TrEMBL record:
GO terms for molecular function: uroporphyrinogen-III synthase activity. Its EC number is 4.2.1.75. Catalyzes cyclization of the linear tetrapyrrole, hydroxymethylbilane, to the macrocyclic uroporphyrinogen III. Pathway: Porphyrin-containing compound metabolism; protoporphyrin-IX biosynthesis; coproporphyrinogen-III from 5-aminolevulinate: step 3/4. Coiled coil: none annotated. Residues 18-224 form the Tetrapyrrole biosynthesis uroporphyrinogen III synthase domain. This is Uroporphyrinogen-III synthase. It comes from Vibrio casei. Signal peptide: none annotated.
């Protein structure tokens, strides 16, 4: 068995290192690269004027911290902090030294179900995110009467697969498992794959972190999908090493 890991940056590299320590062969091929976003310069002011700050990913926390350090500013203490995932919350807690509220299931729907986000009328809410993405949090909180503002603190840029021999190389390396941690990555992979390798790709066991991405994978025709319920590397490792299997896999 060999695992193809598409998650970008150091997180993807770290997962491959963890797999190798467990004698699981892996290949790292990120499909997006992360860079400074358009909201970088406005971040200190955006944060100072916010009652609630929501981080949608660890990348949002990383780039927010980078911007604040550059402008010699701190995470404001008057704000209430939320994060979509546990790992994002832990990263934000370390930097803010404040409690960060997060849902047990890492997605927008469960974030919006948190009691602390039910009564937000006239609250100033800042969402830290990358370029684009879902609008559900913004729309729902706006409908609840909040004044919601985005800061696109980082930018995701696609990485093209320019080597036509790469697909054959992955086959020869006996890739049987595929880790994709965002719907954007999955869609970009499907867009680039040559037709002659599409059947092979859809037969791989696909590991995804949420039901929403799982539904997207089903529409693309993937046959073996495992929803890990989290994009945290230790949890992905547990699934890939066989420690966690029961109740999560569904075959079409």
């Amino acid at each position: 068995m060999s695992v193809l890991v598409t998650r970008p940056g150091k997180d993807g590299e770290a997962l491959c290192t963890m797999l190798q320590k467990h004698n699981i062969a892996s290949l790292h091929h990120p499909l997006i690269q992360l860079e400074q976003g358009s909201g970088y310069t406005e971040l200190p002011q955006d944060m100072e004027t916010s009652d609630i700050i929501i981080a949608v990913s660890q990348h949002a926390v990383h780039w927010a911290n980078h911007a604040l350090q550059y402008y010699h500013a701190d995470f404001p203490q008057q704000a209430t902090y939320f994060a979509i995932g546990e790992k994002t919350a832990h990263s934000l807690t370390k930097l803010t030294q404040k409690e960060v509220i997060f849902p047990l299931i890492s997605d927008s729907e469960h974030l919006l179900d948190l009691p602390a986000l039910k009564s937000v009328k006239n609250k100033r809410i800042l969402i830290l995110r990358g370029n684009g993405g879902r609008e559900l949090i913004y729309q729902t909180l706006s409908q609840r009467g909040a004044r919601v503002h985005y800061n696109e603190i980082y930018q995701r840029n696609p990485i093209s697969i320019t080597d036509p021999t790469l697909w054959a190389h992955w086959q020869d390396a006996k890739v049987t498992q595929l880790v994709v941690t965002s719907g954007e990555q999955l869609e970009y992979l499907i867009q680039q794959i040559p037709k002659q390798y599409l059947r092979w790709l859809k037969q791989l066991t696909l590991y995804i972190p949420s039901q929403r991405i799982g539904q997207q994978a089903e529409k693309f025709g993937f046959l073996h999908i495992i929803n890990t319920g989290s994009a945290a590397n230790p949890i992905l490792l547990d699934y890939l090493s066989g420690k966690l299997i029961t109740g999560q896999e569904h075959d079409r």
